[in-house]
Amino acid sequence: MPGYLPFAGALKLPSFVCDNCGFWQRHFAAPPSCPLCLDARHVVPQDGWRFRDVEEAQASFPCHWEEVEAGVWKFWNEPVTGIGPSAYLIVTPQGNMGFEGCPVFSEAALDHIDALGGMTLLSASHPHSYGALPQLQDRFDPELCLPAADFTWSAALQVSWPYDDTLEPLPGLTLHRTAGHFDGHAVLHDATRGIVFCGDALKFELNPDNPREALTISAHKAFVRGVPLTHAELTRYREVFAALDFHQTWTPFEQAANVGRAEVLALIDAMLAGRPHAYPVPVSDLR
Fold it and tell me: What is the C-alpha to C-alpha distance for residues 151 and 155, in angstroms, rounded to an integer?
């Protein structure tokens, strides 16, 4: 039964936000460490751990929002410490879907989502961009769709709709597990708008004079550490992206309006042709 929590005790604990990466934990006191920072894809804080409760995080990191495409809202914090991903809300006649989480939502931002019709479905590409998903679940009680492969990272959440490789929770919005960056890393394909929300499968450097134009594109196992993906991981990426029709590619940080299926496949094919690397490749070289 959607929304049924057979054991919800952990979800009643206070929430704490890691200042280094933005990962949320539910704990009876400030946690001793952050599992996401201790993971090999990240780095530990140089000056020790700092965890903020929700009220402190809201006061420290103002939340902003903007309709970046018709029916697609972006939420972000500025200023913010740590990773600082953006969250997206996709408005549809069948219900609204949230994808990714910014580090913290203000009460005004949550009220704005409510005014847009709330949130029926919720998901994310991988733990680096879970962010404040617990806030959204507490406020709107959406169905939470996450890959079973990343279940171990969801202790602060209640997964109600686990999936293996592909799930279409709303018409025209389909989740596809790419693996690679994380075992459960997934992308969201918006077939109506021709957008792939690609999580950390790809990374862009943007034109400072045109923030929707990507100048370079790269792919990584670990961006902070510069670790490349293997050929097997890239092959899986290619299989997923090749099956999708899209002309824009958005990460939790950038909206690349000039990169679509052709450029993404050209990048992956070039990477498969040689030894693994994590170097940025000019978009102009992929056309």
Answer: 8
CA distances (Å), 125 to each of 185, 199, 202, in order?
A: 5, 5, 12
CA dist list (Å): 252 to 124, 142, 258, 265? 10, 20, 16, 20
> What tokens appear for 119 in the block?
């949130």
What the block records as the tokens of 235 is: 């092959």
pLDDT of 225 above 50: yes
Q: List all residues 6 or more positions away from 5 whose beta carbon is below 8 Å from its beta carbon.
A: 11, 158
d(CA 89, CA 99): 6
| pLDDT (tens digit per residue) in 231-265 | 999 999 999 999 999 999 999 999 999 999 999 99
| Residue 29: other Cβ atoms inside 10 A | 9
How many Å apart are CA 77 and CA 96, to the nearest integer? 21
**What is the rounded distance in angstroms from the CA atom of residue 85 to the CA atom of residue 57?**
15
